[in-house]
Design brief:
Layout: H1 3-30, H2 35-47, E1 50-51, H3 52-59, H4 63-75, E2 79-83, E3 91-95, H5 97-115, H6 123-142
Domain HTH marR-type: 1-138
Protein name: MarR family transcriptional regulator
Keywords: DNA-binding, Transcription, Transcription regulation
Length: 146
């Protein structure tokens, strides 16, 4: 593969990612949230109660930043925090009733807005794109080279 093609592919990926990040940020702001807060709520909405460490890994932020974001969500009464009774080193986070209500309204609206950007793209194209981006992500995380 030519170096120029790789550069163009990376540029396209970064620009596309940035454009989607901006749309997600707008949706988060529409709901009175920062994009990182929205990401945490989305994780909890889809996967339920999670240990803090998994939340940090999913949202791709440091443990210090995770504490800050979770504290903000606690203050907004959108999540609850529970210490594990078997292992006090583990703390679980889950949506509060208010957080659940917010996400039941906000996430479907968000998803509908995101779907519009995929108009005109066939399902097989999306599947191919998913396979390619998974391979790229795996290689980038491992620092692999061929």
């Amino acid at each position: 593969m030519e170096t120029k093609q790789v550069g163009l592919a990376i540029e396209a990926l970064v620009r596309t990612s940035g454009a989607f990040h901006q749309r997600i940020k707008e949706d988060a702001t529409r709901n009175g949230l920062h994009v990182t807060e929205f990401s945490v709520l989305e994780l909890l909405y889809h996967q339920g109660r999670q240990p803090v460490q998994k939340v940090a890994k999913h949202v791709l932020i440091t443990s210090g930043s995770t504490t800050y974001v979770l504290d903000k969500l606690l203050k907004k009464e959108l999540i609850t925090r529970t210490v594990c009774s078997e292992d006090r080193r583990i703390t679980y986070i889950e949506l509060s009733e208010q957080g659940q209500h917010l996400m039941q309204q906000a996430f479907p609206e968000h998803l509908e807005r995101m779907k519009q950007y995929f108009d005109g793209i066939e399902e097989d194209e999306i599947q191919t794109w998913l396979e390619i981006t998974r391979k790229l992500g795996k290689a980038a995380r491992k620092g692999e080279r061929s």
